[in-house]
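Page header: ASSEMBLY MODEL / two components / 948 residues total.
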Amino acid sequence: MNDDAIVLPHRHKNPNRLSLDLIEAQYALKNSWGKKNAKSVLVLVSGIELAGKGEAVKQLREWVDPRYLRVKADPPHVLNVNQPFWQPYASFIPGEGQIVVMFGNWYSDLLSTAMHVSKPLDDTLFDAYVKNMQAFEQDLKNNQVDVVKVWFDLSWKSLQKRLDDIDVSERRWHKLHGLDWRNKKQYDNIQKLRKRFSDDWIVIDGEDKTKRDQLFAESILHAMQDLPEHPDQGTINWTQALVPDLLLHPESDALEHDQYKKKLKKLTRRVAEALRYDERHVMVVFEGMDAAGKGGAIKRIVKRLDPREYDIFTISAPEKYELRHPYLWRFWTKLENCSDIRIFDRSWYGRVLVERVENFANEREWQRAYDEINRFEKDLIDSQTVIIKIWLSISKDEQEQRFHAREKTPHKRFKITEDDWRNREKWNEYLNAAADMFERTSTDAAPWTIIATDDKYSARIKVLKTILKCLKTT
Amino acid sequence: MNDDAIVLPHRHKNPNRLSLDLIEAQYALKNSWGKKNAKSVLVLVSGIELAGKGEAVKQLREWVDPRYLRVKADPPHVLNVNQPFWQPYASFIPGEGQIVVMFGNWYSDLLSTAMHVSKPLDDTLFDAYVKNMQAFEQDLKNNQVDVVKVWFDLSWKSLQKRLDDIDVSERRWHKLHGLDWRNKKQYDNIQKLRKRFSDDWIVIDGEDKTKRDQLFAESILHAMQDLPEHPDQGTINWTQALVPDLLLHPESDALEHDQYKKKLKKLTRRVAEALRYDERHVMVVFEGMDAAGKGGAIKRIVKRLDPREYDIFTISAPEKYELRHPYLWRFWTKLENCSDIRIFDRSWYGRVLVERVENFANEREWQRAYDEINRFEKDLIDSQTVIIKIWLSISKDEQEQRFHAREKTPHKRFKITEDDWRNREKWNEYLNAAADMFERTSTDAAPWTIIATDDKYSARIKVLKTILKCLKTT
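Prediction written out in full:
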């Protein structure tokens, strides 16, 4: 970023007027929740120590209604290969109508990591991180989370003067991020690095405290006031992918029960071993029509695992509070605090399947989702995760038979609802949605595997073999 | 607990029958959500190493639909003075319709802590913990979370034999909790300690693996099948407390603006210092009628604080997913991951105020809530927390004037809704509810302070003084 990256029109309102405008904008933002122009505001603040980011937020919080301005301050997390940069912050991303200021954020983590003397980041890696962060923020913006990034700057001379004057009792609020701010070389290095940030930062000079606070508040006001209607329609030039033959004709040779039992015994053991042996996180994702055998396949995967080794996520319609966030948010937050082996019975692909077919997402939203999903998966793959995506393909006739069988079996009767019958009517639309999904999200790093399931036994064996193939084995 | 604490009728069903029954019960539980007989099941498992708790849960998960049986395994947390024993587990307590098995739980933490050689717990403290845990579980049960506690036992001789035979490759699943299971003295000590647990544990002998798994599954089946209707009515012999005079006549001497400004300047500084200096967590809880000045008071408390030092929680109606849990659950989970200074603009007292007056809670529920709240606060106070509870008392006339003023002021207009006017109609019911609240929840450790607010200036000064009085100062 350049120092004059974003120039705000600042008329320097009188503080009372500014405070009134801020409160009006804050409540308008708050009340936008659930409406056509709803959005949220995420403010990332970073900067030179003692440039006054704390004071500026404090002043802002005095001008607004402090109850509706959440502040999140985290000590820096060193970026590591085991989790995406957004993971520690995901659950604090504001929902519609909310505004959150993050002192600790992915950029402060990046700077901390880059400055970490024992193993500094090189420029190429630094730039790659910045690019990824920007892409993530663009996804947030597309999903009505406005991201405002503010750098509080301070000259070397002023910083030294402020360090001389610092009040001892307040020192706990200037933890100095483990850096030596008396060291000119470190200061220069930080300045050099932050200039590699993107151009959409607002740079505020911390020299003049009044101007600083005012400029910061005006930037936030500006973001809160900007509540555009979200367009419903996107690009209409949509080329429908061809439905793969395996979806139209999911036949396969039947496997004898004896054969199946023998293979199953061997494979469940080998899969358990491979899942344990592979040091990466493993995500197995199942999609497919109802009754295609997702539950049965999952049962066989975990057969030889200890229940403490894995988590199964069964995905259904989002909760109301989840709808307040970007679609993928509920998956970001699920990945905190879970086992290394994660099995998804349906997944984020709901966005381009059921949400597309049932019009829960508009065209613009589901058409954008393929890229969002690919980026999400790439972030995970870059963080030591293997993603195994399996489509279980059943024929319409076989599904009907299984539905009838379920209705007759006491312990399966719960598994069938009117929705299931209703979904059958949109069979071809689901096939089309699946076809587009394969075409656009079957990446080199996370390809789809389609498995025919009209014969249950051979399908289960194929699922286990697919998983084995994707894992490192002893 | 005695070894035969709970004797289950076990006919030893055949495994297929048992599996069918389990699945039926599991779906019935799942589908109970939102209905009259809704509940959830929390299974706490502990026991002697290698007695087979992992295997028993694994077998259970094979018999049921594994997608709807969540398993949570945590390494033990040493119990410490800084957080209640339930804190690390609060967010994993199952909601209505759900079932969760916790391997790590407050009892395994208690045993770990007690066995911790450098600073062992004495029996009195151990027993006090057990008693607290039981009280917490009773609150869970009263709120439709069934708690099933299972101890997997194993004789010393069998344990030694199993340690001889243990498969090296599976050792990672027998972390042995940092204990030396070859040490007879330690084994005896664990046995001695767990016998101090309450009598409602199910003890399962791990000797015979088939019996063990079956008995465990039957215990869970038993819990899942038991879906009683929740009674709406409780004790009716309710003695209404007298409404304190300060609620009926919240007059006070008016404070001049100059005086106010002078006092405010001094007090905001002293409050900030005291909040920082006090090493305990601080919770300031505001309740009171609309427009009583909660927002204004909060603004003055945080005036001299850095925005990173505190969190403000503004409590309104629970979200749908929160209603799936015990009423206090959303407060339990809020206390994870927040600052040491926590300010509540309305709070858990909503249960005995708005929920009582508006019939969102039935009599049984709100009448029980006083004890639940007192226990909740005691757990916090025992964990180094000071709770400052302030009722801002406004007169009906003054409220009306403030409502009108709000409607006329652009930046306050958002603060007033039709609900606010409607609530005025129930003025006396709210006063009665407040009176009962004071009488039943003004404890020695966390008393209520009532502050008259018809004069805003003097009210704010009193709020600051009240906080100062409750804190340790330099």
